[in-house]
Design goal:
This protein has 288 residues and is of the alpha/beta class. Helices cover 48% and strands 15% of the residues. It is built from 10 helices and 8 strands. Strands 3-2-4-1-5-6-7-8 form an 8-stranded mixed beta sheet, sandwiched between helices. Helix 1 runs antiparallel to helix 2 and helix 2 packs across helix 3. The protein is elongated and about 65 Å long. Bound molecules: guanosine-5'-triphosphate (GTP) and magnesium ion. Guanosine-5'-triphosphate binds next to helix 4.
């Protein structure tokens, strides 16, 4: 079973033996039902029509392959690789409550460690004591370092500590957890900017990514959150979690197409191995 086999398929091709108007209508509807959003769905169908005509495709199987290519092109909005070009490099994880930030850090920390990287987790969520505990368990599980302070500490101060520790220890990658926050709470958004300023001041030349974690089961709602985070926090990549649940895979295309920010990783479960770099080709093959 492939990694993306948990994704719900758009399976309309088996119902059609020829490609006609009815096919396009039903395809449009299935894409919308798959959470792609109305505009991206219309755009995909229009582009498919254009290519089918230009390439004179007739067989449903050819059209299926063509649709995969159309979706792959819509997903291609920038590099899906993490920028780890400096040592240390910093990755900030941001997003609303409960989307999977801490879990994703745990999984990514383990994966980077397996690649031979020296990883440091930073417990920048000081809002609840349980947050640092949860991250500590992940650090122990994957055998990586963690820097934390007590509940209520200034998150920027924890980040400062982590950066100092990383410089002293020769860390390759610092993964910074942050408290879940709503994009419309200005003081909390300012806190993210403060963290970012500390990084810029302490490690001016470092590669720094800000990854927005989105829960795929929130569908089009997640997209609205993402637009506002993008405006106020300078997001460099998306991590889409919980694609294993009731989520519909089409939301991935909607996010890439509407935000023009690449999906870099996807989460398909709660286990340490349930995070993968996003591969548009494998993904569209599973989806269509
Ligand atoms: N099924 C599934 N569950 C996930 C995935 N990622 C995270 N979860 C679960 O989602 C819940 C919330 O995850 P957390 O990592 O605590 O989320 P968070 O964004 O750190 O939450 P806050 O710190 O409260 O904002 C936990 O029960 C996780 O196990 C995923 O890819 N698939
Ligand atoms: Mg958390």
């Amino acid at each position: 079973m492939g990694f993306f086999d948990k994704i719900k398929k758009i399976g309309i091709f088996s119902a059609f033996s020829s490609i006609d108007e009815e096919f396009y209508d039903e395809l449009e509807e299935s894409l919308i039902l798959a959470d792609m959003g109305v505009d991206p769905a219309l755009k995909a169908v229009e582009e498919l029509r254009r290519r089918v005509k230009a390439e004179r495709l007739r067989e449903p199987d050819q059209v299926r392959v063509c649709l995969r290519r159309v979706l792959c092109d819509m997903l291609d909005v920038g590099s899906t690789e993490l920028d780890l070009s400096t040592c240390p490099s910093v990755i900030l994880f941001i997003g609303v409550n409960g989307v999977g930030k801490t879990t994703t850090i745990g999984k990514l920390g383990a994966a980077l460690k397996v690649q031979g990287k020296k990883v440091l987790l930073c417990a920048g969520d000081t809002f609840r004591a349980a947050a640092a505990e949860q991250l500590t368990i992940w650090a122990q599980r994957s055998g990586v370092d963690i820097v934390k302070q007590g509940e209520g500490a200034d998150p920027a101060a924890v980040v400062y500590d982590a950066l100092t520790a990383a410089k002293a220890r020769g860390t390759d990658v610092i993964l910074v957890d942050t408290a879940g926050r709503l994009h419309n709470k200005q003081n909390l958004m300012n806190e993210l900017n403060k963290i970012r300023r500390i990084v810029d001041r302490e490690l001016p030349e470092c590669a720094c990514e800000t990854l927005l974690v989105l829960d795929a089961t929130t569908g089009q709602n997640g997209l609205i959150q993402a637009k506002q985070f993008r405006e106020s926090a300078g997001v460099t990549g998306i991590i889409l979690t919980k694609l294993d649940g009731t989520a519909k895979g089409g939301v991935t295309v909607a996010i890439a197409d509407e935000l023009k920010i690449p999906v870099k990783y996807v989460g398909l479960g709660e286990g340490v191995d349930d995070l993968r770099p996003f591969d548009a080709q494998a993904f569209t093959e599973a989806l269509v």
